[in-house]
Automatic annotation (TrEMBL):
<keyword id="KW-0472">Membrane</keyword>
<feature type="transmembrane region" description="Helical">
    <location>
        <begin position="29"/>
        <end position="51"/>
    </location>
</feature>
<protein>
    <recommendedName>
        <fullName>Maltodextrin utilization protein YvdJ</fullName>
    </recommendedName>
</protein>
<dbReference type="Pfam" id="PF06691">
    <property type="entry name" value="DUF1189"/>
</dbReference>
<feature type="transmembrane region" description="Helical">
    <location>
        <begin position="200"/>
        <end position="223"/>
    </location>
</feature>
<keyword id="KW-1133">Transmembrane helix</keyword>
<dbReference type="InterPro" id="IPR009574">
    <property type="entry name" value="DUF1189"/>
</dbReference>
<keyword id="KW-0812">Transmembrane</keyword>
<feature type="transmembrane region" description="Helical">
    <location>
        <begin position="229"/>
        <end position="251"/>
    </location>
</feature>
<feature type="transmembrane region" description="Helical">
    <location>
        <begin position="160"/>
        <end position="188"/>
    </location>
</feature>
Length: 261
């Protein structure tokens, strides 16, 4: 059976998961990497989009078309006679203001804004507001252009490296999760004795993790606020409840261990 069929069967069939217990450890390890790869796609797309958006916004505030400015001592200084400056490019509002006339409340109704205000950077991304103080940073627009030119050219490579590191981290966490699930399996085996060795339980644990992992990825992608709407750690509790239920259903499909005569 192909590894893709194993993935689809693991989404709905406790009987097939029980049969997978005879598979080799190496194949199961490969399956875990595939599971993490599939369920990481939405997060990878989101992260790539965020990084690219940040790069595009940085290019906008470094454009030659906007006035020169410098940042130092926790505030911004805009070219004389140009502040406050406001323009709109590709749907994003760009603001430079060292007078204090523009406040965060003035852009609260906007969707996409990059504003260099008198004492902070304000970014509105699809209505979500983030603010960052200048702190002790000191630079001019020209210096920032020179410093970021090579960085922006290598941004795709940096993005790929970040995604690879996140994938490896997620894979490590998933392997730990499989070991935790196998621990639950050992406890359940005592309640309902079956002819299982630990390697069988570990292999089944990888496939039992499939549906909870997919559901978790979908919730994070489409309903990221679900923990806020319902209660804290809802996703975490839902994951382990699903694991417990699926493991019980899988054990019910296996032959019971015959009592010794």
């Amino acid at each position: 059976m192909s590894i893709w069929k194993s993935f689809f069967y693991s989404l709905y069939s406790p009987t097939m998961i029980g049969r997978f217990r005879m598979q080799k450890i190496g194949r199961t390890i490969l399956y875990i990497f595939l599971l993490v790869l599939i369920t990481s796609i939405p997060a990878a797309i989101s992260i790539s989009s965020t990084i690219n958006m940040a790069g595009e916004r940085l290019e906008l505030v470094l454009s030659d078309e906007i006035p020169d400015y410098s940042i130092g001592s926790g505030s911004i200084s805009v070219e004389e006679g140009s502040s406050p400056y406001m323009t709109q490019t590709d749907g994003t509002v760009i603001i430079l203001d060292d007078t204090g006339e523009v406040t965060p409340d003035d852009v609260a109704g906007e969707t996409d804004v990059t504003a260099l205000l008198d004492d902070r950077v304000l970014v509105m991304d699809e209505g979500e507001q983030n603010e960052f103080a200048y702190g002790e940073f000191s630079f001019t627009k020209e210096e920032l252009q020179e410093a970021t030119a090579s960085f922006l050219e290598l941004l795709p490579a940096y993005t790929a490296l970040a995604l690879l590191l996140l994938y490896l981290l997620a894979s490590g966490v998933k392997f730990l999760g499989v070991f935790a699930i196998s621990g639950i399996g050992l406890l359940l085996k005592k309640i309902r004795p079956t002819r299982l060795q630990y390697r069988h339980i570990w292999v089944m644990s990888a496939y039992i993790a499939t549906l909870p992992t997919v559901v978790g990825a979908l919730l994070d992608t489409f309903i990221p606020e679900i923990d806020t709407w319902l209660f804290n750690d809802f996703s975490f509790i839902l994951y382990w409840l699903m694991v417990l239920v699926i493991f019980i259903l899988v054990l019910r499909t296996l032959p019971k261990q015959k009592p010794h005569q």
